[in-house]
Amino acid sequence: PRAPTSLVVLAVLAVGFVLWATQDLILPVLLSMFFALVGNPIIRLLQRIRIPRFISALAVLCSGIALTVLLGQQLVQPAGEWIRDAPRELRSLAPKLQKLTKPVQQANEAAENIARAAGGDSAGKRVQVVKTEVNDPYKVLTATPKLLASVLAVVLLTFFFMVYGENLQRNAIAMLPDRQRRKLTVDIMLSIEREISRYVLTI
Asked: What number is the average pLDDT over the span 82-99?
């Protein structure tokens, strides 16, 4: 029998809430599975030349970390230059922004004058919005350990999925009812791995 629409909606909302509440745990797992998916074709290629999977996964993971560090170093200098030049660029844009916002200010003043004439002085009082901002100098320091822990978790989980992910896939596929479906599932998964790995490595 088909489930009622209200029950389906409640189930979707419940799943969405659980995913949102556990995003700090789910996100590292999903990232690790994606990185392992990218590295699996390379690991299989290394296994064909008699390199054990454990060593192949370690080599691929270390290579990926090294490439990420090199890419970060290449981006640090342009980012620093952009940050240094940002105040000057903003100062040069300020007059242009004032010209763009001048018609809006004039329209607001005209609306206030109309409201004041229609409803008296009390209706023409401008509503002021007070914005408060809390600048915590220790916010970065307190967030750094959490960030490092998340990065370390992603690295360890990626290595785990690279080494044992194939066995997990094999055990999951073995639960399918017939051989044809198992073969089709394996072909689809291998094709997805190859295409994702090819796309990521050629960016």
From this structure: 72
Is the predicted pLDDT of residue 146 greater than 60, yes or no? Answer: yes
Q: Which two tokens stand for residue 133?
A: 């901002």
Q: How far is CA 35 from CA 63, 138, 154, 169, in A?
A: 12, 32, 9, 16
For the whole model, what pTM was predicted? 0.59
Q: Which residues contact 176 (CB under 8 A, 6 or more apart)?
A: 182, 185
At 14-29, the pLDDT tens digits run 888 877 877 778 888 8
How do residues 93-111 score in pLDDT, each as one tens digit? Answer: 767 777 777 777 777 777 7
Give a three-class secondary structure readout of the chain.
CCCCHHHHHHHHHHHHHHHHHCHHHHHHHHHHHHHHHHHHHHHHHHHHCCCCHHHHHHHHHHHHHHHHHHHHHHHHHHHHHHHHHHHHHHHHHHHHHHHHHHHHHHHHHHHHHHHHHHHCHHHHCCCCCCCCCCCCCCHHHHHHHHHHHHHHHHHHHHHHHHHHHHHHHHHHHCCCCCHHHHHHHHHHHHHHHHHHHHHHHCC
pLDDT at position 123: 46
